[in-house]
Amino acid sequence: MGIYLNTENGIEVIDKNSLGTYKRGLEGKVYNYNGNALKIYHPISGKIRMGEKTANLLTSLETKRLLIPNKLLYKKRKLFFKDKFVGYMTTPYIDNSIPFFQITHMSSDKLSSEIMLIYDDLKILSKNKILIKDYDHPDNIIYNGDIYFVDCGSFSISNSKNIEYHNFTQINNALYFQLITLQQSYKYNKNNIKEIFENNFEELTEEEIYILYKILIRIYYKNFKEILSSNNEQFKYRLLEIIAKFESINNYKLELIKSTLNKNNNLINDYEKSLIKKIYK
Asked: Is the distance from CB of 141 to CB of 178 less than 8 angstroms?
């Protein structure tokens, strides 16, 4: 029989040869299976991954933005051996065809609504003792008009008293780094900068663009540390306050840059200030 999904209507056999292209990760391969994300574990993995008990618990929960298993995948074994848990399915399959930096154009009302949906999901998982992991990785947050967190392959059940604090901290860190800073990709991407400075961008050389990138990372990270100096609850509401105050994330970024230019500090030198002023008019 090979591999199959356990469904409410019985066994659904999966033909691996018909699955087509896939995305490869450390834990396994992810396929688009009839509009669902089907994750099949590698036979051997160097990373600790979600076990059957945790995955089975997640199938009983319902979330909207943190995608979790709704069906489990098994491999048929011979004789009297128990069938092997080899993966799971989540719904829907999220295509990341929209460049993530375009999320900065999302309206503040829409963005606030998305974050609240994410927080609601977190409360459900925390209440059921699910410890989230890897959501601070840039590949695990996808924007397609809505915001989704994908890949729950490292989730586990935990009896920690601080589970909600841990979960909210990881999500808030991920949201800030993806929404406010330029960290959606570990690699330098000048489109992230062009989205902020729409005017006079072509006046910069490639070297100046990269220098500007490093300046902005410095500014955003300093702001991030200042926000984190408060406790987790304050940080959560601070993010929503930022969204409510500014029409877009880009406007907030520009305000951070403007306030840095107007302050006497050692965060940026005179040359860096002149470089920003060159296009920020």
From this structure: yes
Q: Is residue 14 part of a domain?
A: yes
> For the chain, what is the domain count?
2
| Other beta carbons less than 10 A from residue 115's beta carbon | 20
Task: Tell which of 62, 90, 118 closes a domain.
Answer: 90
| pLDDT value for 64 | 96
Distances (CA, A) of 179 to 73, 142, 145: 34, 11, 14
Round to whole Å and give the CA distance between 50 and 263: 48
| Run of H or E residues at 40 | strand 36-41
Query: In terms of residue numbers, what domain contains 210?
Result: 186-281
Query: Is 67 part of a structural domain of the chain?
Result: yes
Model pLDDT for residues 225-236, shown as the tens digit of each residue:
777 666 656 666
- Adjacent-strand bridge partners of 71: 89
CA 49 remoteness from chain centre = 18
Name the pTM for this structure: 0.82
Residue 219 burial (CB count, 10 A): 20
Cα–Cα distances in angstroms (integers) from residue 220 to residues 187, 223, 236, 271, in the given order: 17, 5, 17, 19
- With beta carbons less than 8 A apart as the criterion, state whether 103 and 115 touch: no
Residue 71 is assigned to a structural domain of this protein: yes
Largest CA distance in the chain: 75
